[in-house]
């Protein structure tokens, strides 16, 4: 399996005693109107422009480093905090944003930036084989590659061959049977795949293109379940080379990080992503591994805007662009923030209980360690009540990675240091609930 480097690109550019469980858990945005009123209060007496540099370390009483060790869940959860505290240099605003869906023109512009100029789109439709089976219409050359991959997987099943079939729990016998069916499909396949015109591409499912009728470029279009519009785009350079990698892991790679970053940024400049919206002056949205907000009583689950670029020694292997948004209005230029001492108190109360799956009774022999390496004050997107819109609000995020130990596993997750263990609204102290 190829070693690759995953880059997450931001758009816009002492052992403590066990902590008591709070009598009433903090919640996210239980009163957004009150939060906005509190946030704006500082504007009534502001004496300097919001663009002037701010020393938040002095204003909020925040340290430049933060160290602490805590334990909970009968000693099976350890929290090791050895973190840099990173604060912005300007006032933190509150900004309303709205979803920016992909239309056909924009999707085609993405395809033009990602695909070779000579690539042609092909049909992903299926052709019937008998009464109850069908297969995707592919060329004989493409089937040669599929058969080679399947044969290699069968011959090396216990040395990594099974990795290509992890998603469907196939056994070696299953793949051997499938190989026989694939050989039959190849005998029916044409020399060239049927082409499809750009204007006939559908706005759902996926687009595929080829240069040589052996390799397929994939562009997957994921739609919003509520309105059917495209809200995520995924690109793979080769549909048969989809490594089992995690965007949230830091993986050994074949190329220097500086080279990978340069390759990724060269691509980003070509993509039709418009004005970057993740940075506002010297204030940025905090980037994490979290994929979305959790579902609230008044809103469905929301994906975070994120652009991820996969780079290997051959160049850009994959791209994923999630949930773009546009700025609607700035609700406050300056915000009234809680002192760090209050944030620290909330952290001690919540870090051992929030999202602690060790408390569910199914992991009695598991031991986890949260390694918190960064404490960052920045903007975080939360759903606006009863609306498709979101609010970028000031929040403290405690970031790092987690170490798991059990009779079944011994592993680190989130080794890029961007796993959010706790996110605290810097205005009202509520917990911002993240998924993933």
Structure description:
This protein is of the alpha+beta class. Among the domains are: 14-98 and 329-435, no CATH class; 124-194, no CATH class. It is 19% helix and 31% strand. The protein is built from 7 helices and 21 strands. Strands 2, 3, 4, 16, 17, 18, 19 and 20 form an 8-stranded mixed beta sheet that branches. A hairpin with a 4-residue loop joins strand 18 (390-405) and strand 19 (410-413). Helix 4 (140-155) runs antiparallel to helix 5.
Write the SSE topology.
Elements: E1 5-9, H1 32-40, H2 56-60, E2 65-72, E3 77-86, E4 94-99, H3 104-114, E5 120-122, E6 126-129, E7 133-136, H4 140-155, H5 172-188, E8 205-210, E9 216-223, E10 230-236, H6 257-270, E11 279-280, E12 283-284, E13 292-293, E14 306-312, E15 315-322, E16 325-332, H7 340-350, E17 367-383, E18 390-405, E19 410-413, E20 419-425, E21 434-435
Parallel strand pairs: 3-17
Antiparallel strand pairs: 1-14, 2-3, 4-16, 4-18, 5-8, 6-7, 8-9, 9-10, 10-15, 11-12, 13-21, 14-15, 17-18, 18-19, 18-20
Key features?
436 residues; seven-stranded antiparallel beta sheet; disordered N terminus; alpha+beta; single chain; 7 helices
Short description:
With about 425 residues, the chain is of the alpha+beta class. Helices cover about 20% and strands about 30% of the residues. It contains seven helices and 21 strands.
Order of helices and strands: EHHEEEHEEEHHEEEHEEEEEEHEEEEE
Would you identify the regions where 5 or more consecutive residues have pLDDT less than 50? Answer: 1-26, 43-49, 243-252
The number of strands is 21
User: Largest sheet, if any?
Assistant: 8 strands, mixed
Query: What's the total helix number?
Result: 7
Give average pLDDT, whole number. Answer: 80
Q: Please give the share of residues in helix.
A: 10-25%
Computed over alpha carbons, the radius of gyration is 25 Å
Distance between the termini: 25 Å
> What is the global morphology?
globular
Oligomer: single chain
Structural class: alpha+beta
Strand content: 25-35%
């Amino acid at each position: 399996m190829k070693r690759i480097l995953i880059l997450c690109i931001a758009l816009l550019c002492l052992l403590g005693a066990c902590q008591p469980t709070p009598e009433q858990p903090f919640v996210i945005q239980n009163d957004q109107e009150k939060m906005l009123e509190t946030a704006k209060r500082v504007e009534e007496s502001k004496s300097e422009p919001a663009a002037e540099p701010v020393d938040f370390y002095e204003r909020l009483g925040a340290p430049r480093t933060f160290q602490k060790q805590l334990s909970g869940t009968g000693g099976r959860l350890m929290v090791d905090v050895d973190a840099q505290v990173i604060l912005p240099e300007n006032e933190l605003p509150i900004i309303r944003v709205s979803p920016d869906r992909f239309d056909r023109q924009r999707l085609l512009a993405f395809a033009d930036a990602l695909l070779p100029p000579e690539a042609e789109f092909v049909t992903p439709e299926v052709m019937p084989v008998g009464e109850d089976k069908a297969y995707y219409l592919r060329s004989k050359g493409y089937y040669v590659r599929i058969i080679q991959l399947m044969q290699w997987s069968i011959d090396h099943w216990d040395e990594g061959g099974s990795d290509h079939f992890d998603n469907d729990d196939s056994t070696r016998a299953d793949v051997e049977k499938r190989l026989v069916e694939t050989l039959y499909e190849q005998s029916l396949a044409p020399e060239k795949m049927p082409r499809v015109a750009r204007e006939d591409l559908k706005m759902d499912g996926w687009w595929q293109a080829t240069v040589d009728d052996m390799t397929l470029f994939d562009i997957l279009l994921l739609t919003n379940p509520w309105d059917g519009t495209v809200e995520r785009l995924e690109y793979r350079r080769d549909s048969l080379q989809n490594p089992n990698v995690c965007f949230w892991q830091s993986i050994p790679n074949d190329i220097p990080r500086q080279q990978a970053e340069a390759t990724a940024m060269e691509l980003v400049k070509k993509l039709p992503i418009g004005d970057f919206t993740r940075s506002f002056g010297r204030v940025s949205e905090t980037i994490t591994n979290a994929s979305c907000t959790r579902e609230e009583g008044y809103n469905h689950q929301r994906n975070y805007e994120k652009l991820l670029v996969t780079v290997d020694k051959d160049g850009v292997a994959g791209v994923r662009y999630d949930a773009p948004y546009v700025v609607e209005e700035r609700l406050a230029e300056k915000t009234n923030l809680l002192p760090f001492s209050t944030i620290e108190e909330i952290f001690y109360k919540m870090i051992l209980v929030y999202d602690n799956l060790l408390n569910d009774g199914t992991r009695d022999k598991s031991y986890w360690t949260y390694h918190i390496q960064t404490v960052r004050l920045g903007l975080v997107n939360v759903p606006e009540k009863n609306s498709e819109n979101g609010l970028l609000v000031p929040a403290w995020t405690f970031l790092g990675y987690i170490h798991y130990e059990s009779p079944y596993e011994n592993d680190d997750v989130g080794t890029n240091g961007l796993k959010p263990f706790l996110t605290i609204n810097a205005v009202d102290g509520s917990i911002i609930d993240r998924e993933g």
